Amino acid sequence: MTTPHLEAEMGQIADTVLMPGDPLRAKFIADNFLEDAVQYNGVRAEYGFTGTYKGKKISVQSSGMGLSSASIYATELFKFYGVNNIIRVGTAGAISTDVHVRDLVLAEGSCTNTRFVHNFFDPEIEFSPIADFNLLRTAADLADEKGFTYHVGNTIGVDRFYNDRIDNDRLAQFGILATEMELPAIYSIAAEYHKHALGILTISDHIVTGESTTSDERQTGFKQMMELALDTAVKFAGE
Ligand SMILES: O=P(O)(O)O[C@H]1O[C@H](CO)[C@@H](O)[C@H]1O
Ligand SMILES: O=c1cc[nH]c(=O)[nH]1
């Protein structure tokens, strides 16, 4: 069996999947962290690999950018490939001045300015996309053990990277730590299929202060995020 966007055979994808937006970050994780990694997907250059980490079978699959693209991969993985856990490993822009470039954010919640979440329900319902508590607690405990600088809290997943109409001060007042572009979809689809998801984000730039990182760092850096996601994944990996 394959799907329109994944050419893996059944059994080739692990039950726990790391999901960066960037396909080259997926390749970087496979090349640098996984043992015996085998590429199972190249459709649309959204690379997917399965290998082992600390003896557990783990996959890494890029989602592309944006809620629509991420929704396709989350649905195909959860619904057709029997995946149980998706851990997004993404970059994000900081909104809160308590959060700095290269800090980690564990996305407890994921607001959105899109209609994506609304479309699951009757108009009067405002569903709250949230992280899986066990994944979140495990990642936070591991980040403490490792001494990583991290924040846990609410985030926003937006439809436009370039949007100067968003009132970031007001979002910060309401405790929104950072902005990215996929988690409302991944969290909602995890809920739809009774599965589990967590976003572990690295701050690549600061929307308010203007701090930033290089595109090379965004593609291949951020090793703390990758290590934290993998160590979280092995605690949930079924095989
Ligand atoms: O670094 P990734 O995981 O792609 O995530 C962030 O980077 C992209 C925008 O540059 C969006 O996909 C956003 O969510
Ligand atoms: O989606 C994103 C990712 C990084 N930085 C941003 O400002 N937005």
From TrEMBL:
A purine D-ribonucleoside binds at H5, E180, M181, E182, S204, D205. One of its GO terms (biological process) is purine nucleoside catabolic process. Phosphate binds at G21, R25, R44, R88, V89, G90, T91. The active site is at D205. Its EC number is 2.4.2.1. Gene3D superfamilies: Nucleoside phosphorylase domain. Residues 17-221 form the Nucleoside phosphorylase domain. InterPro entries: DeoD-type (IPR004402), Nucleoside_phosphorylase_d (IPR000845), Nucleoside_phosphorylase_sf (IPR035994). One of its GO terms (molecular function) is purine-nucleoside phosphorylase activity. The record marks R218 as: Important for catalytic activity. It is an enzyme of class 2 (transferase). The keyword Glycosyltransferase applies. It comes from the Bacteria. Belongs to the PNP/UDP phosphorylase family. Catalyzes the reversible phosphorolytic breakdown of the N-glycosidic bond in the beta-(deoxy)ribonucleoside molecules, with the formation of the corresponding free purine bases and pentose-1-phosphate. NCBIfam families: deoD, PRK05819.1. This is Purine nucleoside phosphorylase DeoD-type.
